[in-house]
Amino acid sequence: MRRNVLVVVVAGLMLSVSGAWAQDEIIDEVIAGCEKEINTYCSQVTPGEGRLLACFYAHEDKLSGQCEYALYQGAAQLEQFAAAVTHVATECSDDLVKFCAEVELGEGRVGTCLLEHKDEVSDGCRQAMDDVGLEAAD
């Protein structure tokens, strides 16, 4: 369980940098799965910066199976996200420097930049973008 909470925290930090790929439904699923725990143990916690996860960690021995499962699922999905970010960053490193060096990190701006230059990036970068399903947000 401790490893899952750590993975969620690390990936959550990555999500704040790479908003284009952020999966709000992951957060929504964890909140729904842990609603009882949030209301019982963490209602006074201000969400953000890992504080809610720290509260879960502090009450780890009291989490329901439903909440543990929601955290596990969220961690698994975030691990996949982290692998996708690493894959694209590795395959697109030269393209990121060439086309997106001046782009401010956060809120999906780098992903958007890559998408804007998709026809110009290397074949490996384009393939990595396709591999992970990087596409414009609706």
If you had to describe this structure to a student in words, what would you say it looks like?
The protein is mostly helical and 138 residues long. It has eight helices and no strands. The protein has helices spanning 2-17, 24-33, 35-41, 51-58, 65-91, 93-100, 109-116, 123-132. The N and C termini lie far apart (34 Å).
What share of the residues lie within helices?
Answer: 55-70%
Strand content: under 5%
What's the alpha carbon Rg, rounded to whole Å? 17 Å
Low-confidence stretches: 2-21
Sum up the overall morphology in one term.
Answer: elongated
Number of helices: 8
Largest sheet: none
Query: What is the succession of H and E elements?
Result: HHHHHHHH
Structural class label: mainly alpha
